[in-house]
Amino acid sequence: MKYARHDTRIYNDLQPIDRNNPDSASTAIEYGLPTGFSGKAKACWEYFSGAAYLFEYKGRLVMTDESLYLTEHGDGSHAAPFGAPRGEFETWEEVEEWLEAVYDDLEADDLL
């Protein structure tokens, strides 16, 4: 595995979706946010409560929204609408940095 696991909670309550390979979606493992993340990252995660989910899938970390899409798919047409996860990351540190950057953006826009 490309990254070390942090102290996280495994949920597996959700059924994520991979439109490119539907059978493999069941291998995704849902995680809660690591306990050692910064206050900014935790605050951003709380802001997205119920609208962001973390999975380990095919050797990477995938953050989804309510769609639960694990992979990019579709061409934007009516027959094949576009869908994608919020982000894909190689390390937990990248997840934390992304959440901190989003927090800064939200704070700058007075949304927090």
The number of strands is 4
Computed CA radius of gyration, to the nearest angstrom = 14 Å
User: Which structural class should the secondary elements be placed in?
Assistant: alpha+beta
What letter string, H or E per element, gives the SSE order? EHEEEH
The percentage helix is 10-25%
Give the low-pLDDT segments: none
Overall shape: it is globular
Number of helices: 2
- The average pLDDT value, as a whole number, equals 88
Distance linking N and C termini? 35 Å
Main β-sheet: number of strands, strand sense, barrel status?
4 strands, antiparallel
Percent range for β-strand residues: 5-15%
Strand order of the largest sheet: 1-2-3-4
What does this structure look like?
The chain has 112 residues and is α+β, with helices and mostly antiparallel strands. It has helices at 39-47, 92-108; strands at residues 29-31, 53-57, 60-64, 87-89. The chain has a four-stranded antiparallel beta sheet with strand order 1-2-3-4, covered by helices on one side.
Q: How does the SSE layout of this entry go?
A:
Elements: E1 29-31, H1 39-47, E2 53-57, E3 60-64, E4 87-89, H2 92-108
Antiparallel strand pairs: 1-2, 2-3, 3-4
Helix pairs in contact: 1-2
Concise summary:
The protein is an alpha+beta fold. It has helices spanning 39-47, 92-108, and strands spanning 29-31, 53-57, 60-64, 87-89. The N and C termini lie far apart (35 Å).
